[in-house]
Specification:
The chain is an alpha/beta fold and 550 residues long. The chain has helices at 33-38, 40-46, 81-93, 112-119, 181-196, 242-254, 271-276, 290-293, 298-316, 334-337, 346-351, 361-376, 406-410, 454-457, 464-478, and strands at residues 13-17, 50-53, 97-102, 132-133, 156-158, 164-166, 201-204, 261-264, 284-286, 323-325, 381-385, 485-487, 495-500, 504-509, 521-525, 537-542. The longest helix is centred in the middle third of the chain and has 19 residues, at 298-316. The N and C termini lie close together (5 Å). The protein binds alpha-D-glucopyranose and magnesium ion. Alpha-D-glucopyranose (GLC) is lined by residues 63, 66, 103, 169, 205-206, 265, 329-330.
Length: 550
């Protein structure tokens, strides 16, 4: 059993739902909670263990819902609190757990606190919940520091009264001041609000940014992606003071029976600092994004897996949670990304509209299917992103006029952003939005999505949907709780061949020519085998004489 007990999340396969793009029940072009509830049978039949919902709260949608105006309600376009309760109940009845997204680093600029802060005078109590500062330079017309937003441009915005406020993301996402007790108490209250309603866990958005060093003079930040210091000394990210917040949250989670789980989103450049958030007295689990960044290259992937396993043990201990991610709502879909030559930045490729370079979609899908089998054969938990079970590709050629990601405007159209992985799902071959709803969806679907729809793949041998179903079914019997992975020698240097403690093996051929199949009983393959392991494919097998354990 991989599912029993309160620690179900350690080995769970979690399916990420981007609610606005999943299923639209009321025909307004926007996916909604009743649409998701109606489609739960698809997810139960797929064989995932839990769902993670990105934000469904009231939001002006300056950042796809990550600008939350009210943490304890549902956006009217997506439903009501009663719809959320119905969803939780229906998910549980279908044997699925439900994780929701908590966005503690910033609110929407329409949140009651920020509205109050704007109406209040500089220095007043309502402004203390955020980071307001006077500017520098003559007349304070320069921002308080050189900090930059993730989405491009300065991280400071000036108000008519002359003060500036901090926003590490869009200007509609003011950063909260986590030195403020009221902020801390309110979030614990929000966690309880949803835990009381029955949600099983929380995904913590930008969990590494809440605590900031705001002592004057404000110091320059270090580059997030490459040079973040390893001692927690950056003024903005990954500061040691964060861990106290998560220890306090753990006490909130543990007051429930079963205790609520949590997973941190932390974009730190080294996985070892990441694993600190997964310590058992903190959040328990953290996304490890290393696989989602790795190109299709045997040695790089082998190295990523080795590093993640080692770091997890060393920094989170054997009790810390191990996770794997290939796709999400923030990165180009892996069926496209893995077709890119090493060294090509996936976000730049999206911006080129699939012209620099134009990718081979069939090769991308072959590689994606193989990568998925590899990920699902690893110890710990795996996070899937909606539509990857259909082999959806990144819609890189969305026309400029439909783009919604704030990255597009904030970078002055230098980067297109993340809309290409957020296109509504195709459920059927026909219809105004291929079964997504009764009207066209909020982003246009490419015609090629029709043949990737659930209807087109359901029951079709060899389809990506059936591959995922078979893999998830098998994984339930094969996944073990120990984290042992050994490398098996293979004569072909393009093959990565790994073995679990119970004899479950996964071999991936990163090359393009067929090579020797591993010895033992074949359980599942990402491509037709024909006596050999084809190029760009993976196989699960079992060493003869060793049986699957629980
Ligand atoms: C996280 C989310 C991303 C969002 C950002 C700001 O990285 O995954 O979608 O834009 O936080 O909330
Ligand atoms: Mg709708």
């Amino acid at each position: 059993m991989t599912q029993a007990g309160t620690e179900w999340w350690r080995t769970a396969v979690v399916y990420q739902v981007y609610p606005r793009s999943f299923a639209d029940a009321d025909g307004d072009g926007i996916g909604d909670l009743p649409g998701l509830t109606a489609r739960l049978p698809h997810l139960a039949a797929l064989g995932v263990d839990a769902l993670w919902l990105t934000p469904f709260y009231p939001s002006p949608l300056a950042d796809g819902g990550y600008d939350v105006a009210d943490y304890r309600d549902v956006d009217p376009r997506l439903g009501t609190l009663a719809d959320a309760d119905a969803l939780i109940a229906a998910a549980h009845a279908a044997g699925l757990r439900l994780i929701i997204d908590i966005v503690p680093n910033h609110t929407s600029d329409r949140h009651a606190w920020f509205v109050e802060a704007l109406a209040a005078a500089p220095g007043s109590r309502p402004r203390q919940r955020y980071h307001f500062r006077d500017g520098t330079g003559p007349d304070g017309a320069e921002p308080p520091s050189d900090w930059v937003s993730h989405f491009g441009g300065s991280a400071w915005e000036r108000l008519p009264d002359g003060q500036w406020y901090l926003h590490l993301f869009a200007r509609e996402q003011p950063d909260l001041n986590w030195d403020d007790d009221e902020v801390r108490e309110a979030f614990e209250g929000t966690l309880r609000f949803w835990a009381d309603r029955g949600v099983d866990g929380f995904r913590i958005d930008v969990a590494h940014a809440l605590v900031k060093d705001m002592t004057e003079p404000l110091r320059s930040q270090t580059t997030l992606d490459t040079a973040l210091p390893l001692d927690g000394s950056d003024p903005l990210y990954d500061r040691d003071g964060l861990h106290e917040i998560y220890r306090s949250w753990r006490r909130v989670f543990d007051a429930y029976d079963p205790p609520r789980m949590a997973v941190a989103e932390t974009w730190t450049p080294t996985s070892f600092r990441n694993y600190l958030y997964a310590r058992p007295d903190e959040l328990g689990q953290v996304f490890d994004f290393a696989l989602s960044k790795a190109p299709w290259d045997r040695d790089t992937v082998a190295d990523v897996i080795r590093t993640s396993l080692a770091d997890q043990f060393e920094y989170a201990g054997t009790e810390g949670g191990l996770t794997w991610v290939l796709s999400s709502h923030d990165v180009p879909r892996h069926a496209s990304r893995l077709a890119l030559p090493a060294g090509v930045d996936p976000m730049a490729w999206v911006t080129s509209g699939d012209t620099d370079p134009t990718i081979d979609r069939a090769a991308g899908l072959r590689r994606a299917r193989a990568a998925t089998l590899l990920m699902l054969a690893m110890p710990g938990s795996a996070y899937l992103y909606q539509g990857e079970e259909l082999g959806l590709f990144e819609v890189a050629d969305l026309p400029a006029e439909v783009l919604q990601d704030p990255i597009w405007e904030r970078t002055g159209h230098a980067l297109k952003g993340r809309d290409g992985c957020r296109v509504p799902l195709p459920w059927s071959r026909t219809g105004p939005s291929l079964g997504f709803g009764a009207a066209a969806g909020w982003l246009p679907q490419p015609p090629a999505f029709a043949d990737l729809s659930v209807e087109a793949q359901d029951g079709v041998e060899g389809s990506t949907l059936e591959l995922y179903r078979a893999a998830l079914r098998l994984r339930r019997t094969l996944q073990t709780h120990d984290n042992e992975v050994t490398t098996v020698a293979h004569p072909d240097p393009q093959v990565l061949h790994l073995r679990r403690s119970n004899g479950w093996e996964c071999a991936v051929n990163f090359g393009t020519t067929p090579t020797a199949l591993p010895a033992g009983e074949v359980l599942l393959a990402s491509a037709p085998l024909d006596g050999a392991l084809p190029g760009e494919s993976a196989v699960w097998s079992r060493t003869t004489g060793i049986s699957a354990s629980d």
